[in-house]
Specification:
By secondary structure, this protein is an alpha/beta fold. The chain has helices at about 15-25, 40-50, 75-80, 100-110, 120-140, and strands at about 5-10, 30-35, 60-65, 90-95, 115.
């Protein structure tokens, strides 16, 4: 069976973390169509397909940082999970925070997973590997029309 690459949206403002996530996915051989936005307002526009993002692909998985310019990850989660057309997209919070209140708030806004980003390169790569193994191999994601 011929599978299409999974559409992943990475919402991250740190260029080093963007590079690490991109490299980790490539290293693991993940067939993905990775889109990256670097601030919260662009993330919302990407998901709503407005403005310069009118042709954006609908992601099948979102990796979301909480601390973003213009709109926070919490704001994005709130918009995303309130939209009937978007709420089924799994959202993995991938952030430097390990604060109990951030974890609780993320889950109360229906995040699917909360992962604290390690500062060590090898550990960061291991986290991305674990996300990939679970979310792209073990878990079943919602099927989009046209995905085979």
């Amino acid at each position: 069976m011929n599978y299409k690459p999974i559409k992943i949206l990475l919402v991250e403002d740190n260029p080093a973390d963007i590079r690490l996530a991109t490299e980790a996915l490539k290293e693991r051989g993940v067939e993905s169509d990775l889109s990256v936005v670097t601030d919260g307002m662009d993330a919302i526009n990407f998901l709503k397909r407005t403005g310069k993002f009118s042709d954006s692909p609908r992601p099948e998985l979102i990796l979301l940082d909480l601390n973003l310019p213009r709109k926070s990850g919490f704001d994005i989660l709130q918009v995303l999970k309130a939209d009937p057309n978007l709420k089924s997209i799994p959202v993995i919070i991938l952030t430097t925070s390990s604060a109990d209140e951030d974890i609780a708030k993320s889950y109360s806004l229906n995040a699917n997973c909360f992962v604290t980003k390690p500062t060590d390169l090898a550990q960061f790569l291991e986290v991305v590997k674990t996300i990939e193994e679970f979310w792209l191999t073990i878990a079943s994601l919602p099927v989009l029309s046209g995905r085979v």
